[in-house]
Amino acid sequence: MTDDASPGSPATATPATSAPVLSAKGIRKQFFGVEVLHGVSLEVHAGTVHGLVGENGAGKSTLMKIIAGVHRRDGGEVRIDNCIVDFSHPVEAGKAGVATVFQEFNLLPDRSVAQNVYLGREPRRRGLIDVKTMRTNTQVLLDDLGVEGITPDAKVGWLTVAEQQIVEIIKALSVEARVISMDEPTAALSEAEVAVLYRVIATLKSKGVAIIYVSHRLQEIFDLCDTITVLKDGAQVMSRPRSELDHSALVRAMVGRPISTFFPEPEPGTEIGDAVLDVRGGGNEQIDGIDVDLRAGEILGVAGLQGSGRTELLSALFGVGPFTRGTMRMRGTHVSIRSARQGVRKGLALVTEDRKGTGLALSQSVLDNALLAIRSVFPSRTREMRARTPDLLESLEVISRNSTQEVRALSGGNQQKVVLAKWLATSPQVVLLDEPTRGIDVGAKIAVYRLIRSLARRGVAIVLVSSELPEILGMSDRILVMADGRIAGELPPSSTEEEILTLATGTENHVVSDDADPARQR
């Protein structure tokens, strides 16, 4: 992998001929008498990226926290340069050259980049903080990574998520970290920001830094990693060079089932019916010229680059950012949806891409979250749904201690199922899904896909927005591609990723034929 690596470019496997910078052997860990890691081993070499994958609950985070000094191990050993270490605090790990960039950043938004980089260990001169040295050293680190657009004096709270992530990496390099662990580093990044992270990782590799990379996005694992270790239920399934694996083998190792089941086929009895909702000439400040039909039992995939108008389309349909021109009809009747409440009353549901920020009340219970929409829009049905919600949660296979557990304590996949339960309680005719599998593990993704298929069989019209093109191709009956706030074209599910990207980037005009519409074919 070179310095100009980008999403889609393969990693260059680095032979692991030298001794590992970090090795963990036979790591065991218990919580409240229950063993959650069963003798896991890991070797990380200088200048390589080691992928760590597995479903939620597989033990990835626990292993990372042991390496980072957050947790103490109960068995096994960790070595740095073949010397046994036993970190009791992340500060000790940092002094030994081991740093971790967690999903939740440890930054102070009201302080500058330089102040965050040197937080708690500010250089001093004559008893005072040496601001000039902090600024100078931070700029050197930014320059070494080839980072532009971030200055040492910039306030962290004003930076994008991707830029804040780079500040965390700079912090690690400022203590001369030789091993950097990254936990789901692209979960909240746009495609352009992911490309920046790829370049930063390539630069770190060229400088001999060893990287442990945790991600649910398998394409990133194959793009970036030299070696891949799979954990399942706290045990190590395998650890192999990336060159010896393909997507099918990796999925099978992670979930115990072949990749052919990853995108389930339509359920028996699924039929695409009449139009449930149609828009003609729809537009507002973000999107324009929208002509779209949604049919009962159909899954309409929406692809496009970041900023193409995909999310804005869903918001307009739902009434959050309503259409200000054009016409909308539901079941042949003209409607005007100007708010989320009106959208719900008309039979629409919107699963947003940010489940923690806009989908859930994290401090409330699983049950209360499942009842959020009903209480807000259909209060008279609250008692009825309260009685039915346990069965709904069970049908969605939500794993929690009980329905009174705070939803913040659930895994990402189970949180997403609670979001879906909240909307299914309203018995929607149209379900709008914005990145429904973002940040959840492979097993949870399959569960969401099966739910989508089940809804289609029941005659629900579904709009699926996703940045993962295999997901669009594997789940859609039709595909709309958006670019610059407009629908650039329509494709059948038999299309290729290249054809989608051609429309999304506007590199070639595409004429849509009636063959792209499966409803017409059927």
UniProtKB/TrEMBL annotation:
By its UniProt entry, which PROSITE patterns does this protein fall under?
ABC_TRANSPORTER_1, ABC_TRANSPORTER_2
On whether Transport is a keyword of this UniProt record, the answer is yes
Which cell locations does it reside in? Answer: Cell membrane
Q: Which GO terms describe its cellular component?
A: plasma membrane
UniProt cross-references to Gene3D superfamilies, sorted A to Z: P-loop containing nucleotide triphosphate hydrolases (3.40.50.300)
**Regions annotated as coiled coil:** none
Q: Which InterPro entries match?
A: AAA+_ATPase, ABC_carbohydrate_import_ATPase, ABC_transporter-like_ATP-bd, ABC_transporter-like_CS, P-loop_NTPase
Q: Name one GO molecular function term.
A: ATP binding
Sorted alphabetically, which SMART domains does this protein's record hold?
Answer: AAA
Q: How does it sit in the membrane?
A: Peripheral membrane protein
UniProt keywords, alphabetically: ATP-binding, Cell membrane, Membrane, Nucleotide-binding, Repeat, Sugar transport, Translocase, Transport
Q: Where does the record place the ABC transporter domain? A: 22-509
| Chief location bin | membrane
Q: What is this protein called?
A: Sugar ABC transporter ATP-binding protein
- The species is Brevibacterium aurantiacum
